[in-house]
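Hi L.,

As promised, UBR-type domain-containing protein:
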Amino acid sequence: MADKLVENTEEENSLTMLDVLQEESQLEEDAYAVLGASDDRNCTYNKGYIRQALYACKTCCSQKIIRAGVCLACSFHCHEGHELVELYTKRNFKCDCGNSKFGNRECNLEKSKSATNTENKYNQNFDGVYCTCARPYPDPESENNDEMLQCVICEDWYHSKHLECKDVPGDDAYEEVVCAGCMRKHDFLWRYAAKYSTIQKSGVSSESEEDLLNVETLPNGCTMPPKKLTAATGSCFWLEGWRTSLCNCESCKQMYKEQDILFLLDPKDSVQAYEEAGKITKRESQYEKGMKALASLDHVQQMTAIEEYNNLKERLKKYLQKFAENKKVVREEDIKEFFSEMESKKRPKVVVPTYCR
C-alpha cells in the first residue's frame, strides 16, 4: 500500500517519500560501516586495545610532532568545536584523549587514564595525510579526488593510481587489499596470491604452471604454497576468505609474530567483521520507521510531507554551508538552534476541507 501511495506523487514531484527514505537508509549504512558498534556517549578507554573509529585533533595536538587518536565519544564530548581529522578505523588502539599527549587537558568522560598507550601505533594518517603521495583527503589542490582504498596491514589509505597496478578490480571482485609496500615487506604472501587473490585471473605467470597446483611441504610438516609469482608486483587484491588459507603451524605463527602481522589469523580483525558488529547492534532503521509511517498517510498528507522535507533540506543545506566554509565541527547545540529557528518560522497549518457547506 505504501509503494502505491508513493507512485501517485511521482508525476507531481521529482523527489518522492520513498526516495527520501532510501537516501536516509544509504546514509545509515555508510555510518554503520564507519562507526561499527561505537558508543557516542562513553569513552572506549576501559575496553582496552580494540578496533574502533578514531579522530585526530589538530586543535589539541600539533601534527607531525604529536600524534594521538581519540574515540567517537571523546570527539563529541571533549573536542567539540575543534578541527578533527577522521581516521576511519584502526585496529588494536586505545583512546588517547586526556593523556600526556594532550598536556593539561583532561578527558571529560574518563579521568583515570595512563600517561601513554604503549601498544598504540601511529602512521601519517594522524597528520592528516595519506597514500605514498602524502596528501590530505579531500585534496584541496586536486580537481579530481581519486578513490582511496585502505591496506589491511598498514591501514594507510592509497589512491587507486598509486597502488602500482595497471588495473584495479571492481569492489565486488575482492574482499581486502594489501598495498604494494606491504606486499614487498611480507613477500611470502605472494605464495598465496596464486590461488587466493584476483591475480589468478590476470594472466601473471609463476615459476611454472605446476606451481599453481602443487604445494611445498616444509621440514616442520606444514604445507606452504609454492614459490612466489615471479612477475607479481604492486598491490594485491584478496578474495573472500583468503585469511583462512594462511598456514597455522607454530613456525609460521612465529614468523607472523616477528613481522607483526599475527592479527591476520584473527577472524574478528577484518573491517567486514567490524561492520557486521555495527549492524547487529543497530536498532530499527529510519527507513523501516519511515515506511511504517508512510503507510498511514493519505495522498494529501504525503504531498505535504514531501514539500516540508524539501523545504527542510534546502534550509539545512544553507545552514551547514557556513560550517563547511569555516571548517568547523557541527555541534549538538547548533542542530538544536537550527530546529528551534525552523519551529519559530513554521507556517500556519492549512486545513484542507473535505466537504462544502
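Strands lie at 50-57, 84-93, 148-150, 157-159, 176-178, 216-217, 223-224, 236-238.

Thanks again for sending the construct details.

K.
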